[in-house]
Design a protein that fits this description.
Shape: globular
Strand content: 15-25%
CATH class of the largest domain: Alpha Beta
Oligomer: single chain
Structural class: alpha/beta
CATH superfamily of the largest domain: LCP protein
Length: 476
């Protein structure tokens, strides 16, 4: 450090010293402010990219090639600019997942999800599109929808995303404003960088035919309940195609079940990315940004990413809807075999792509009609949720989950004793409320009985009561 002899310097020199000190102090402050800004800025970019908004170049590369001044300018002006589709009150994002290098069909899109945001009612709709759906390409040929990305890459280097986006758009009849693709390895790395994700698994199931990297198969298994999954586990859970249910209801070996699991994982990743612990952790942000740059392709601009994250933070979880189009009797598609190679394919009923386009055009209107029907058919059962453990807040947590299913919880409190090992659902309704029971069993697995123990019979004095849910230590 330069030393000054104050006995020899005059007033002009003293002024110069003061100016130099103020300048160095100002530079120090600016450096720290810019560092904090960059941390916050990069974290918001990451949040959007992981849950899948997009654009014409790799987002991470876009950020890298732009100067800091441009990024600051984008941030300042983002509040005054509109996302694509915002003026029409709906923005649509295409999400693609593929095997990537080292997998069979590395450029075939195993996962295809359209995410739509409705500005008027602050709602999000996620629709899973089956990979075996046949669509008409721009050259008039009919291809499986999961081949589009591969065709686009063959036609033009780095052209897969735009080709897929354009051709799906023309088949479903609505504009696709943004797109994003991620390969399986990148997905696994993202989940691990986040420290894993929490997922409530509906059914216990086993899959004896899960593919390995060396083109063989292995056995994987999941048990129902709330689990914290690593990246590999989350990938297996979302990709499994041959699951056999060993405890629970339904069928885990269908594309429908697989799509439902994928949507659960997406929601869990979204919650993890937007959490305070992630946004304020520079190490996590650094890891995520590296993964983003290497494994995710997207066409979102930086200011658009910031705008998206602001929107996502305000979404009510009860206004995120999931829908799958498939070949169920009450759905839009029928299954058949290709006349070309005998492969299993899906087409719209009667070959009418108009019904698919009507579906996507009226996503939100159809959902509101469905919600109104569900409200009219509400069983209005009287439900008590009791905490039979020493886990603080467990009853409130589970009651909140049930309320999100449209159930009304009349009482939430600690049970007379807090030493319950297993969760028990006491059905006192004489089977009058089957839909309510189904929702309880879907969200809170437990033993069902209609015999109330002595220490809970005092609750009957309070009047009509249909269900008592006694939470045990098997709950988390």
């Amino acid at each position: 450090m330069k030393k000054y002899n104050t006995n020899l310097i005059d007033k002009n020199d003293l002024s110069s010293v003061r100016r130099e000190y103020k300048k160095s102090r100002f530079v120090f402050i600016i450096k720290n402010v810019l560092f904090l800004f960059l941390i916050g800025f990069l974290s918001t970019i990451l949040a959007l990219s992981v849950i899948a908004s997009s654009s014409k170049s790799n987002l991470a590369k876009t950020i890298q090639k732009n100067s800091l001044i441009k990024q600051i300018s984008s941030l300042i002006s983002s509040d005054f600019r509109k996302l694509k589709g915002e003026l029409e009150m709906r923005t649509n994002v295409l999400i693609l997942g593929m095997g990537g290098e080292g997998h069979d069909g590395p450029l075939l899109t195993d996962t295809i999800i359209l995410l739509s945001y409705n500005y008027s009612n602050n709602e999000i709709f996620m629709t899973s599109i089956p990979r075996d759906l046949i669509v008409k390409t721009e050259n008039g040929m009919y291809k499986k929808i999961n081949h589009l990305y591969s065709i686009g890459e063959a036609n033009k280097k780095d052209g897969g995303l735009e080709y897929t986006k354009t051709n799906i758009e023309s088949n479903i009849g609505i504009p696709i404003h943004y797109a994003v693709s991620v390969d399986f390895y990148g997905f696994k790395e993202i989940v691990d960088a986040l420290g894993g994700v929490d997922v409530n698994i509906d059914n216990s199931f086993i899959d004896y035919q899960y593919p390995t990297k060396n083109h063989k198969v292995q056995t994987i298994q999941f048990t129902k309940g709330l689990h914290h999954l690593s990246g590999e586990e989350a990938l297996q859970y979302s990709r499994s195609r041959h699951g056999i249910v060993i405890d629970g209801e339904g069928f885990e070996g269908s594309d429908y079940a697989r799509s439902q699991r994928q949507m659960k994982i997406i929601n869990s990743v979204k919650d993890r990315v937007l959490s305070f612990s992630t946004i304020t952790n520079p190490t996590k942000i650094s890891k995520l940004f590296k993964i983003l740059n290497e494994y995710i392709e997207t066409d979102v601009e930086s200011w658009e990413a910031i705008r998206f994250v602001d929107i996502l933070k305000q979404i009510d979880k009860t206004k995120i809807y999931n829908k799958i189009i498939n070949d169920a009797p009450d759905n839009l598609l029928v299954s058949t075999t290709s006349t070309y190679d005998g492969a299993w394919i899906l087409i719209p009923k009667n070959g009418n792509y108009g019904i698919v386009q009507d579906f996507f055009n009226n996503l939100f209107e159809n959902q509101r009609t469905q919600n109104n029907t569900q409200q009219n058919n509400q069983e209005n059962a009287i439900i008590y949720v009791l905490n039979g453990t020493k886990q603080t807040g467990l009853a409130n947590k589970k009651a909140g989950i049930l309320e999100m299913q449209g159930l009304k919880i009349a009482k939430v409190e600690n049970a007379p004793t807090q030493n319950s090992t297993s969760t028990i659902i006491y059905d006192l309704s004489e089977n009058k409320f089957p839909q309510t029971l189904k929702k309880i069993q879907e969200k809170i697995s437990g033993i069902r009985t209609n015999t109330l123990p002595e220490n809970l019979k005092d609750y009957l004095i309070e009047g009509n009561l249909d269900f008592i849910i006694l939470l045990g230590n098997d709950q988390k």
